Structures are given as C-alpha cells and as structure tokens.
C-alpha cells in the first residue's frame, strides 16, 4: 500500500543541520524549516562520524521538544556505516531517515527490516520512521519505479544532483538534471510518494531571486519541497512551494462555481474564457487542500 497525498506531511523546506556543529543545532528550530535534516553524512568528516552518532540522541531530544519542525536523519552509505547510523537514529521524535545513494529495491527492503526490528525493540510504533529516498547514480535511476514501490515505509523520493552529475561526468545544472529529475518525479507520483527537489541544484544559494524562480518552476512541474543547505534558502522554499494567494482565490472560485454547475446539471463550464472541466477542478481541490495543510503547519510553528 503506497502513501497517499492526504497522508503526506508538509515538507516544503528541509534544512540540513550537521549533528556535531552546536551553533547550527542551537538555531535550527528558529530557521522556519518544515523539516530538520540532521546530517550524519556529507557534512560530517569520516573521523567525526562516531562522535556524531553519540551526539544524535541529545540533538534529537532538544529539537523534538522545541516542536517547530519534523526531524529526519540523513545516513551514510556504504552498508556498514548505514547500519551503525540506523542503530543510532531509530529514536522517539525522529520522523524518518534520509536514505542516501539507494542502490535498488533490495537495499531499501534490507534497511526497512533493520528499522522494523529496532522500532519493536525500542517500543516505537511500527513504521513510525519513514524513508526519504535519494537516487544518486544512473543505475538506480533505471529502477526508480521498483525503488518507489519497494517498501511502504518510503514517503518520498529525490535525485541527488551533485552525486548524480559526478557519476555522469557532467555538471549539475537545470539542463543536465531536467530529465533525471523528471524521471524521479514521475516515479514518485506513480506510486503515491512525495517528489522532492528542484530542477537545478542546491549548491548555489547566493542569488535568491534566481533561486525563487527555480523553486516556483519546480513547483509547477509537481515537486512539493526541497532541501536547503543554507538558512537563507528556507523562506524561499516555503514561499515557492506554497500556493500564491491569487491561486488560492481562483481555486476557491473554481470549486464554488463547479458546485453551482453540478447543481444545474452541467459537467463543464467556462471561467475567464477558458473551459473548466474535471481535471481543472481536481487541481483546484488539491491546491486548496495543500493550502489548508500549509496553514496548519504554520500555526504549529507559531504555537
């Protein structure tokens, strides 16, 4: 059984937080991100990973008590590191694991089994921790649909553009990453998962106006959120992946007028010179549902 949109959390922005950098941890909950991505992987030097695992329970406890964001833990590859990370990360307050460099469906099922055993052992409800899956090489991309349906624990999928481009021997930009990111988007949507990411790359955060254009374009493709490597990206992601007020107003009009048309026995009608039929009404209803979910999320942050 795959996840449905109604069951999805609002994760417009995921801020990476190195587990072993106290000044970043201390301010993490104040940045406005929907989800905090506690990092055991790329931002942690190999010599510091053991210490990072030891710090993780205290960091999770602090951020969970503050209650302003969900918590993911980004784990390492290869498997011997992933197992140690998972043993450290299956904790109360953790919403899920970011699974890096996914190799295929069997890889996910193995990690799923390990997490299930730890949840049971530690008194955590089954499948509390969800998987956010990163495809970061061409081989796994060819199996994106298999990966997407490998385990019900998977909640979302994304393409790791930097690593993927390195594997290709190319550059991670909007043009080179367009096709692979769309492939991940399509696989995620086909299996009821959250498609995460932007059409470009997260490496350059200096031009926020240009970044906003990328985020809004990505939302128009169907992506619902993305990771931030710097706090300045968070408000851009939150705004860019939220319906604009004018879009909400138009959606409300479409839904209202559709009810009026249905009461009059009409299956299609026009608005501003454009025919309105079932797919357009469905998109309007989905937009309003997302707007309500975002409003609830923002109220939670403000509480």
TrEMBL record:
Belongs to the HpcH/HpaI aldolase family. The keyword S-adenosyl-L-methionine does not apply. It comes from Neoroseomonas terrae. Residues 12-231 form the HpcH/HpaI aldolase/citrate lyase domain. Signal peptide: none annotated. Coiled coil: none annotated. Keywords: Lyase, Magnesium, Metal-binding. Its cofactor is Mg(2+). One of its GO terms (molecular function) is lyase activity. The lineage of its organism: Bacteria, Pseudomonadati, Pseudomonadota, Alphaproteobacteria, Acetobacterales. This is CoA ester lyase.
